[in-house]
TrEMBL record:
<keyword id="KW-0540">Nuclease</keyword>
<dbReference type="InterPro" id="IPR036866">
    <property type="entry name" value="RibonucZ/Hydroxyglut_hydro"/>
</dbReference>
<keyword id="KW-0255">Endonuclease</keyword>
<dbReference type="GO" id="GO:0042781">
    <property type="term" value="F:3'-tRNA processing endoribonuclease activity"/>
</dbReference>
<feature type="domain" description="Metallo-beta-lactamase">
    <location>
        <begin position="20"/>
        <end position="223"/>
    </location>
</feature>
<protein>
    <submittedName>
        <fullName>Ribonuclease Z</fullName>
        <ecNumber>3.1.26.11</ecNumber>
    </submittedName>
</protein>
<dbReference type="InterPro" id="IPR044094">
    <property type="entry name" value="AtsA-like_MBL-fold"/>
</dbReference>
<keyword id="KW-0378">Hydrolase</keyword>
<dbReference type="InterPro" id="IPR001279">
    <property type="entry name" value="Metallo-B-lactamas"/>
</dbReference>
<dbReference type="Pfam" id="PF12706">
    <property type="entry name" value="Lactamase_B_2"/>
</dbReference>
Length: 284
């Protein structure tokens, strides 16, 4: 068996050409797990040849709009095509709190559209089948099936409460998805000897002078500095570090090289990929 990891989006709230909002797709056999649903996730899933009916479950890291703005699109799209596929609602796993509140209410603005569609085609209304779990400082099991498990751990994205990273274990190996967080011990612990760590990345060193004294400066307190991230990846013994949620978005290979240089200066000597949308890695 092979497990694949596909970046369905490497962007951030500020739009950037070619970069959908944050998201990672992990596939193993017949299981397809989506993590976050940022802008244009449905489009990227389609390009990754994973239909909405083929998703097994979706996991949300936190309530920031760039990570959930595509969630109603996933749910409505799956519902609209369900008279063909008959797969039913998608299971959505969300940390309890504000992200869960969003997920449970996300279909409310579509009430008129839902009513109109039910007059014509749909026999049943769409369902946001949301399961919530409590954020814990150590890994807690959120989901498992056929030898594949998903665990969550609380990370540090304050002032956002209830933000988590996920660890996916399959018979082929281990994939960790940081969500949004500053570099923290929890992700380091979760990533010990991981085959792939998909981590958000913020080039503090490059931006510090330009944004000094502006409100934008605050982002450094809750995003992952690339130099410090190199230290984390080294200490955790990560085999392959994949950078995503790129701040600032690199426009070319020279811009990507600057991310790599930062991580190397932090001490990490393993394999690094600077994420591009639809980049796919195989493990196992
Ligand atoms: Zn965030
Ligand atoms: Zn974000």
């Amino acid at each position: 068996m092979t497990t694949t990891v596909t970046l369905t989006g490497t962007g951030v709230p500020i739009p950037s050409p070619g970069r959908a909002g944050p998201g990672v797709l992990v596939r193993c056999g017949g299981i397809a797990l989506q993590f976050d649903a940022g802008r244009a996730t449905v489009l990227r899933l389609t390009e990754a040849e994973t239909g909405l009916h083929q998703l097994t479950a979706l996991f949300v890291t936190h309530v920031h709009s760039d990570h959930v703005i595509g969630l109603p699109d996933v749910v409505m799209g799956r519902w609209i095509q369900d008279h063909v596929w008959k797969t039913g609602p998608l299971d959505i796993h969300v940390p309890a709190g504000e992200a869960a509140d969003f997920a449970q209410r996300m279909l409310e603005p579509y009430a008129a559209d839902i009513a109109l569609r039910m007059e014509h085609v749909q026999a049943v209304p769409p369902e946001a089948r949301v399961s919530t779990f409590t954020c814990t400082p150590g890994p807690s099991l959120v989901w498992s099936r056929d030898g594949v498990t998903v665990e969550a751990v609380a990370v540090h994205h304050e002032p956002v409460p209830d933000a988590v990273a996920y660890r996916v274990r399959t018979p082929d190996g281990t994939v960790v998805i940081s969500g949004d967080t500053r570099v923290c011990d929890e992700v380091q612990e979760l990533s010990q000897e991981a085959d792939v760590l998909v981590h958000e990345a913020c080039r503090t060193t490059a931006l510090q002078t330009a944004v000094a004294g502006t409100p934008f400066e605050k982002i450094f307190s809750y995003h992952a500095d690339t130099v410090a991230l190199g230290g984390l990846a080294k200490r955790a013994g990560v085999k392959h570090l994949v950078l995503t949620h790129l701040i600032p978005a690199p426009a070319d290979e020279a811009g990507e090289a600057e991310f790599v240089n930062d991580v190397r200066s932090g001490g990490y000597q393993g394999r690094i990929s600077v994420g591009r949308d639809l980049m796919t890695l195989a493990i196992g």
